[in-house]
Write a structure and sequence with these properties.
globular, 0% strand, mainly alpha
């Protein structure tokens, strides 16, 4: 990891105290690493903090050792050193650290610094989960759900996923970026916004640029692209643009104000109950002054569930997701209205369509217990898995992506590997992609089999490209023996279940050549035609393939005529 180490040392020099006195060095750092002044200052603080943690860890402090060991494992603010990280984890595991036990389970599962052993991984994961480690519970939930190293058991998966309810505390909105899609579609806007770009828009907004104010308002309203959701900042930006006469900003301002009103009624009218898990502590904004005035003047409103129901119904009718959620909660608990589980299910489903995490959580609880709906372990597990994957640990997806963009392939790979263990399909496909590219952490004879494993897991979760990759691996013999029959099976699954144009084209080619399937020019043409219908991008290659197929058919026809004439 010579190149990565040199880059990290250079970055450390950029962040030394006094670096601001050397304009040439600062400009080089900003150009080479893409960091702004604020980012470099924050990074310098983090580096200094980890230096102090290392000194404390050497003296045997458990929490410091955990922090340093994970930093060495992922290459966070320290040179990546898996061997030293493993040694520290082993010492911590002896002392009973659940975090260290989980890490050792990961190392044995991935074969990092040790010989791969799924049995040892399972033991460490189990002890870590018994110690209350939520990531270990999530890993075990995924393993029992997918039958990874253990017998498949929906009920066991449900047990583990239900214990990860702390994921409701959430975190920053995380963009799930597929590396393969980004490489093949470089113009797509799937990635995170660069911090310098955000600061540029902030500069424009401060100078009175209305479009920048509206854009930043929308970004903070919804979150994503590496920006944390912040309704107060969204309100401020929309207010600035609205004061300048922008009608779009006025509309968004109305939306934010109505959202606040819904939160107001949620806080003061919604009863606390086992199902009503509304995250009061996540309200990071202040209510509008006129809402406070209404509450002070009409203190009798507290506990007026009929009025709350009225406002929630109006909000739900207009499609506001929080109104739908709270209306579902009131129907579930029978507060201000007759208890009606079917209505509760209806409104939770509506809220879930907008991606509301609490709606998914409530639906998962109802399917798990069979409340108002036929009990379905499979549906409950899928819903709980969705909720768990929005926990704070999902922010690791962003740090892994940053490592990848900075060229630190091994650091990105290890982070994606841990997320893949937790069941993130995006991480599984990204692991396979990085292994396909230039990861050096494994030997060459291990790379393709490991990539094949992760393509398999991603395909099992419904990722079409992964299914096609499995066909390609068996077709070319990457990480496995050449097996045309198995390749046909994967292409057919991608074609029938996900209507993939690429899979249809590949099936046409295999019918044309008779590879793994009976040669049939007519079926080949049918699959080529289906590929052209499924995707406009396939029309040119299909046209060329059909020209070739027509030539082959003509030659075969002439050959048959010659044979008939000679007879």
């Amino acid at each position: 990891h010579q190149e990565g180490s040199e880059k990290r040392v250079s970055l450390f020099l950029c962040c030394q105290p006094g670096f601001h006195l050397q304009s040439r060095r600062k400009s080089d750092c900003k150009k080479y690493f893409g960091y702004s002044d604020v980012s470099l200052a924050a990074l310098r603080i983090s580096l200094e903090l980890y230096e102090k943690l290392l000194k404390v860890a050497v003296k045997g402090h458990q929490k410091a050792m955990e922090k340093v060991a994970y930093a060495m494992l992922f290459g966070d603010y320290m040179n990546q050193n898996i061997t030293k990280a493993k040694e520290m984890f082993e010492k911590l595991a002896i002392e009973g650290s659940p975090k260290a036990q989980m890490a050792l389970g990961f190392l044995y599962a991935a074969g990092l610094g040790v010989n791969s052993s799924q049995a040892k991984a399972l033991v460490y994961y189990t002890f870590s989960a018994l110690g209350g480690n939520l990531v270990a519970h999530m890993i075990l939930g995924y393993r029992y759900w997918g039958g990874v190293g253990v017998p498949q058991s929906c009920e066991s998966a449900l047990t583990h996923y239900r214990l990860v309810d702390v994921s409701l505390t959430g975190g920053s909105a995380v963009q799930r970026i597929r590396l393969l899609d980004e490489v093949e579609n470089p113009g797509s806007a799937s990635g995170m916004l660069e911090e310098d770009l955000i600061q540029y828009y902030q500069f424009l907004a401060e100078k009175g640029d209305v479009q920048a104010q509206v854009g930043l308002g929308q970004l903070h309203l919804h979150g994503g692209r590496g920006v944390e959701q912040n309704h107060q900042r969204a309100y401020d930006y929309f207010t600035q643009a609205a004061n300048a006469g922008n009608t779009n900003a006025m509309a968004f301002l109305g939306k934010v104000s109505e959202m606040w009103l819904i939160y107001f009624f949620s806080v003061f009218f919604s009863p606390s109950s086992s199902l009503n898990v509304f995250p009061y502590k996540r309200i990071r904004f202040s209510l509008c002054s006129h809402y406070d005035y209404v509450f002070r003047r009409h203190s009798g409103l507290v506990g007026n569930y009929e009025l709350a129901l009225k406002y929630f119904q109006k909000a739900a009718e207009q499609g506001w997701v929080d109104g739908q959620l709270q209306l579902g909660t009131m129907y579930y608990n029978g507060i201000g209205v007759k208890r009606d589980y079917k209505q509760a299910l209806k409104f939770f489903n509506l809220a879930s369509q907008s991606g509301h995490i609490l709606a998914f959580y409530n639906l998962a609880q109802m399917h798990a217990t069979g409340t108002g709906v036929m009990r379905s372990c499979h549906t409950a597990v899928e819903l709980f898995k969705n909720v768990c994957e929005r926990g704070r640990w999902s922010e690791r997806l962003m740090t892994a992506y940053s490592s990848f963009k900075e060229g630190e392939m091994d650091a990105a790979l290890i982070q994606y590997l841990l997320l893949a263990e937790q069941g993130y399909e995006v991480a599984q496909s990204n692991v396979a992609f990085v292994l396909d590219q230039s990861a050096k952490i494994f030997s060459e004879n291990e790379t393709y089999p490991r990539a094949l494993l992760h393509w398999t897991r991603a395909a099992a979760q419904g990722y079409t490209v992964a299914r096609i990759k499995l066909g390609d691996y068996h077709f070319y013999g990457y990480g496995t023996d050449v097996d045309y029959e198995t390749a046909v099976i994967h292409y057919r699954l991608a074609s029938e279940q996900q209507h993939s144009a690429q899979a249809m084209f590949n099936l046409g080619y295999m019918h044309e050549k008779g590879l793994g399937i009976k040669q049939d020019i007519h079926l080949a043409k049918r699959f080529y035609d289906m590929a052209a219908e499924a995707s406009p991008d396939a029309q040119v290659p299909v046209f060329l393939a059909l020209c070739k197929l027509g030539l082959i058919y003509t030659l075969q026809y002439l050959q048959d005529l010659n044979v008939s004439a000679s007879c």
